[in-house]
Design a protein that fits this description.
By secondary structure, the chain is α/β, with parallel strands linked by helices. The protein has two domains: 189 residues, 5'-nuclease (Rossmann fold); 66 residues, 5' to 3' exonuclease, C-terminal subdomain (DNA polymerase, domain 1), CATH 1.10.150.20. Helix content is 47%, strand content 10%. The protein is built from twelve helices and six strands. It has a six-stranded mixed sheet, sandwiched between helices. α4 runs antiparallel to α11 and α8 crosses α9. The longest helix has 17 residues. The radius of gyration is 20 Å and the shape is globular.
Length: 279
Amino acid sequence: MKAQDGPLLIVDGDNLAHRAYHSTPKTVVGGSGAPINAVVGFVTILVSVWTKERPRAVFVAWDTLGVATYRHELWPAYQGGRVFEPEIVQQLGLLPALCEAFKFGVGKRAGSEADDIMAAAAVKEVKRGGTCLLMTTDRDAYQLVSDRVTILSPRRGSRELDRIRPREVVERLGVRPEQVPDFKALAGDSSDKIPGARGIGPKTAAALLAEHGTLEGVVGAWDRPRSESELVLMFREVVRLRPNVPVTLPRSGPPDWRGGAAALRQLGANTLADRLEAI
């Protein structure tokens, strides 16, 4: 690490792409007439964040659509019912290669989610002495927050970014970052189709963890069937991030604006390409 190096910006690629897709008009199309609104919105947001934060480099993590993970093996209902429009799926297929054209670090691995790849990148960056900014709206990432890992969480309907540090995790959830997997196992997560423990919501989950410290302490103190205890312990394994994914971190330096602009021109995003070449 050089003393002047800034933080590594680690981006939840799918999360940002979906936000860009829904916030950028679908009338933004490429030379073939196919929508490129997610692509244009994605790059525009990243350029804005890079300009403001000046990270040492950018690393983007991606899901592999249509491939089951260990989470589905543990809980087959995990993220069930999610259906994406063909236009966003098509653009999700374009974005990893576009990120490579910018010389961003790119992580994608069948069987692992973007969350796990982000966790692996964060752990590796911290081990090398660096700090991280994780850009995502997914609260699963709160378990990664520390004095060296901060989340940049875009506000809904705004271009502003909230900074989530350990204090903000406690303010938002009522638990410390290391307790987040225990909290979500108890309280559940409707977006991922995880029901949590029967009759326990966020406030009760936070109170139980404040009293008992860990999920083991909670289930050890309650008078419920063993099957319920085993179920919530399994839910914790579903929500817990696993940073054991091999990742290659990018070297420090600005993005390759010209390379990215050339790739955008191939997609028909000429106006955005002009902006980047001006940088």
